[in-house]
Input
Amino acid sequence: MRSAPEQSEAWNGLASLDWDGRTCPFLRKSIQSACTKLTNTPASLLNLRHATLNSFGDFSAPFVAVETNNFRRLLRTVEALSDLGPELAAERDFSESSRRMLSAVMEAAGAREGALFLFSDKPTMLTSVAAQGFAMLPEPAFIPLLPKHAHALTAARSPIVLNASTYSVFLSSNGNVAPELFKCLAPLKAAGKLAGVIALGRRPGDAPYEDAELNAMDLLCSYIGLAVQNHALSQTLAQRVTENLRLMASLHGFYDTALEAFATAIDVKHVNIHGHSLRVGRYAAAIGEAMGFEAGEVAALRSAGYLHDIGKVAVDRRLFGKPSALDPEEFREMADHTVVGHQIVSSVQFPWPKVHECVRWHHERCDGSGYPDGLDGKELAMPVRIMALADTFDAMTSVRPYRESLPLGSALSDLIKMTPQKYDAEAVQALLIQVRRDAVGSNRTPLLADRIAVNIAPADVDHLAASLQHKVSKGKAYLT
Ligand SMILES: [Fe+2]
Output
């Protein structure tokens, strides 16, 4: 008999069968249990070395009296357990994992036919995911269950040997497979709930399933039950995530529609600003898209654009139609729409960041000359800088009481003159990208063509882009 340290070393060897090099308590417990059940020898008396699992020669005296077949079964079961660890941890298709789990059980139980079924309770049914050895088994095979079948399978504490009197207790004959094909059933359970069933057919020579085979199945199936349950949970989770994403998409659609209505309500104040907020939202989103923003950030820009002038609801509508410059008092009232708008939206919890900032600071400029807070470019987040550009671009290309709208080329040229002092150079380059797409006539929905004549050639847009690049690089030439 080996000393205690030697026994400890032996068990550590077995525990090292874990799939990632760490101790796996469940696997260790299963192996200890397997040794006890399959050899009728207490685990504490077993002295196994991992390195000698495939050899009987290293077993010590207490094993000599135990039947060789039992040891072979023990080794098969232990090997199956150790193989299942990495198998179940591997990221592979579940049908492949199912096939390997089924093979392990068939090997341990000495079966030549077997199938692994998953259990679903709506409808109550067993559906095969792997099968081996059967000459004629539909793929997938399914067995509808009555409540009494599901109850009997859930209540079973160990594998069941089927005979003429027990088929109807556990299985129905209403599926596409005859229950008589199966000789033995092992319910797969996790936390007391039925997750599936392993159904074995004939053994070589039609040998019956004895206690030793049933014990081996029992050990493996308690392990496989967890894997099957994990798969079912992950499927449910994936389904719920999909449903939530669909719900979120519909909510975003609802949000967009509601904010469009807000934008229209803001711009109804005066004919001179009709459509302004909707267009600023569209331009800002297009600029963000050309800058490589994520879909959520683009949606945030669109929404912020719809709402950026919400404070104008508090401005005297007479000011929007005044054909001359605003006097200082009128200008202050108009400029206050940024602060009033910020007060209106400050208590709103938007699903995106920076909406509040866009409402308050869309008249700020990179050189600090804007209002209401006179911030400079470093203090303005990119969405705010994009909003400022989109707002100005729409104002330039729209009719005002005191001037006509600027042609597209002139508006872009003027913007470039004011960049980077007033506007962000990257954002202006992104606007040029979108204008060029319209000029080329790509298949996407045009950004401008519904109200601005895109009377500019792609080469002219390229020239403007090169001018801007030359300007922001301070005349330095870069070799590419
Ligand atoms: Fe504004």
